[in-house]
Specification:
- With 309 residues, the chain is of the alpha/beta class.
- 31% of the residues lie in helices and 21% in strands.
- It is built from ten helices and twelve strands.
- The strands form three sheets. It has a six-stranded mixed β-sheet with strand order 6-7-8-3-9-10, sandwiched between helices.
- Helix 4 packs across helix 5 (156-168).
Length: 309
């Protein structure tokens, strides 16, 4: 973490957190989704948020720039309490770039139009200046040759890289990524993760909600594991993913990292279907065919395959 505050009487003072969350709660009606989140992100930190679907990860990210209004608690961005009713949230948002699961590009505008619109309307840049900034960021994501293309003419991975370039064109102090690769074909994921890795190496402050465990371990400074609206475990990325301390994190990571490995205790073993059971299929004697649900084939070794209902 870099130190940006001026030294005090006792020497250098640590920089204030870029993101500071305290006691954050969010409910939808009578259903609590976030149940008291405390979290800080320093300048240049890359914090990856992992956990099962429905654990509140995306809601946490959307609360940070008030796309969702928190029910209770406080959020500070760059030292400004955005949960204060008097805060100029629109001004603070100009410092926060966000990339969603869906690309959210304007379908009727070209790539260049998507990147220059907010620059001109929000930041007041001239057409030439906005175009120069856009082109620089498109070069960064490897799409400078697609400035005149429309979103429908791009692959999903290219659209997501355009969305990243659009966010960067606003010169954000931090970037929030909400599962940016979840809607992509597997072969397109690598290009997007490479752009994000470059951003991290450049010193961009990032919060990333992701299921890409290899990325979280290699690029993240810290990993936050969430479940049921709470932070269950937090620490250095290599430690949390490689040797989690809580049983819930161990179970989750085992299943994510070993999707084909199923413990016997999880299978709910049963006896093979018997005559009269709804899924019983009688052996097809004399035909050479055999249904795996009907028990051992005639003349077999008597081994009965495991049946899971």
């Amino acid at each position: 973490m870099t130190e940006t505050n001026a030294p005090g009487p006792g020497g250098a003072q640590p920089a204030s957190p870029v993101i500071e969350i305290s006691g954050l709660r969010k409910s939808f009606g009578d259903r609590p989704v976030l149940k008291g989140i405390d979290l800080t992100v320093g300048a240049g930190d890359v914090v990856c948020v992992i956990g099962p679907s429905g654990s509140g990860k995306s809601t946490l990210l959307r609360c940070i720039n008030l796309l969702e209004q928190p029910t209770a608690g406080s959020i500070k961005l760059l030292g400004v309490e955005v949960t204060d009713p008097d805060a100029d949230i629109d001004r603070v948002r100009t410092h926060v770039g966000m990339v969603f699961q869906s690309f959210n590009l304007f379908p009727h505008k070209t790539v260049m139009g998507n990147l220059t619109l907010a620059q001109r309307r929000v930041l007041g840049r001239s057409k030439a200046e906005a175009r120069a900034v856009a082109l620089r960021n498109l070069e960064h994501v490897g799409l400078a040759d697609r400035i005149d293309s429309y979103p429908s003419q791009l692959s999903g991975g290219q659209q997501q890289r355009v969305a990243i370039a659009r966010a960067l064109s606003m010169d954000p102090a931090m970037m929030l990524f909400d599962e940016p690769t979840s809607a992509l074909d597997p072969e397109l994921v690598g290009d997007v993760l490479a752009v994000m890795r470059d951003l991290a190496e450049s010193g961009m402050t990032m919060m990333v909600v992701t299921h890409e465990m290899a990325f979280a371990r290699e690029v993240g400074d810290r990993v936050v594991f969430m479940d049921d609206g709470q932070v269950i475990e937090e620490g250095p990325a290599a430690r949390v993913i490689g040797s989690p301390e809580t049983n819930r994190a161990r179970v989750f990571l085992h299943r994510v990292l070993n999707p084909a490995a199923i413990d016997d205790s999880e299978l709910g073993q049963t006896e093979p279907p018997q005559p009269g059971d709804p899924d019983y299929v009688a052996p097809a004697h004399g035909t050479g065919s055999h249904d795996r649900r009907s028990g051992p084939p005639p003349g077999g070794d008597g081994h009965v395959p495991l049946t899971v209902r």
